[in-house]
Design a protein that fits this description.
This protein is α+β, with helices and mostly antiparallel strands. The protein has 2 helices and 6 strands; from the N terminus they run E-H-E-E-E-E-H-E. It is 24% helix and 40% strand.
């Protein structure tokens, strides 16, 4: 049996890790996954394969699965308004089907 959910993906600078996790927790999301990210965008090329001298030059990718698209949009809006004018980042939401969801 599947359950419809929203998956929010946020790719941004690693220095924002703690701030963004606070926003996710405050919105009521039950969890998230964070991983190293690299690539090329409008603000520069960043590689997750190269050692970084500073967290300033590292990117991360959050994946947050929520039962409600409204919660995903709330998180994305807060992150974008607070940080994306001064830090590189992108956020997007996909509608997904979750298999064997323990709790969303």
């Amino acid at each position: 049996m599947t359950q419809t959910a929203a998956k929010l993906v946020i790719i941004t600078e690693k220095v924002l890790l703690k701030d963004i996790t606070k926003i996710i927790d405050a919105a009521g999301a039950t969890g998230y996954t964070v991983m190293a990210a690299g690539g090329k965008g409008s603000r520069n090329t960043r590689s997750s394969g190269q050692p970084a001298i500073s967290d300033t030059f590292s990117n991360i990718k959050f994946e947050v699965i929520t039962a409600s698209g409204d919660v995903a949009r709330e998180i994305a809006d807060k992150v974008a308004k607070r940080y994306f004018d001064n830090y590189s980042g992108i956020a997007y939401i996909d509608e997904i089907e979750v298999l064997y969801a323990h709790r969303l």
